[in-house]
Amino acid sequence: MTWPARKGSQRPRKRSRTGRALPYRAGHDHEERINSPKKQDPDAWRQGFEAGERGGRVACPYPAATVEAWSWRSGFTEGKAAAVARLETTV
Predict the structure, then answer these.
(1) Is the dihedral of CA 19, 25, 26, 27 positive or negative?
(2) Beta strands in 4-88 (DSSP E)
(3) Is the pLDDT of residue 61 over 90?
(4) What angle do CA 33, 39, 43 make, to 5 degrees?
(5) Which of 15, 25, 35, 79 could bridge to 53 as Cys pair (CB 3.0-4.6 Å)?
(6) How far apart are CA 47 and CA 80, in angstroms?
(7) What 3-state class would DSSP assign to 5?
(8) DSSP H stretches of helix in 13-66
(9) With 70 as the cut, is the pLDDT of residue 24 above it?
C-alpha cells in the first residue's frame, strides 16, 4: 500500500504503526545519525548474551535508551539465537 505524497515531494510520507503520518525529516544530519556506526558496550553485551543463552524472560537491567541497554538487548537476542541453534543441531 502506498501513501499519498507530501505536497511538493515525490517521496510518500512514512506511517507509524497506528497509521499516523510521521514527521518528514530532511537533511544530512538526520542521514548521518541513522547511518553512523554505533558503539556497543562489550560488558553489557556479554551479560545479555549469557542471559539469552539461559533462556526465559529477563528484563534488561539498564535504563532505556542507553548504549548499555541497546548492547544488552543485542546480546540477549544473539544468545537466544545461539541457544536455539544449539538445540536444533542436537536433535
Answers:
(1) negative
(2) none
(3) yes
(4) 150
(5) 79
(6) 12
(7) strand
(8) 28-35, 42-54
(9) no
Residue 4 main-chain phi, psi, to 5 deg:
-60, 140
Q: Give the position of cell 542436537.
A: 90
Task: Give pLDDT, residue 62.
Answer: 96
Q: Is the dihedral of CA 63, 44, 39, 14 positive or negative?
A: negative
Residue 41's pLDDT is 94
Domain ranges in the chain are: 42-90
Q: Is the dihedral of CA 31, 32, 36, 39 positive or negative?
A: negative
Beta strands in 1-91 (DSSP E): none
Nearest to 55 by CA among 87, 90, 24: 87
Q: At 61, which amino acid appears? A: P
The mean pLDDT of the chain is 79
Cα dihedral across residues 35, 37, 40, 45: positive or negative: positive
pLDDT of 39: 87
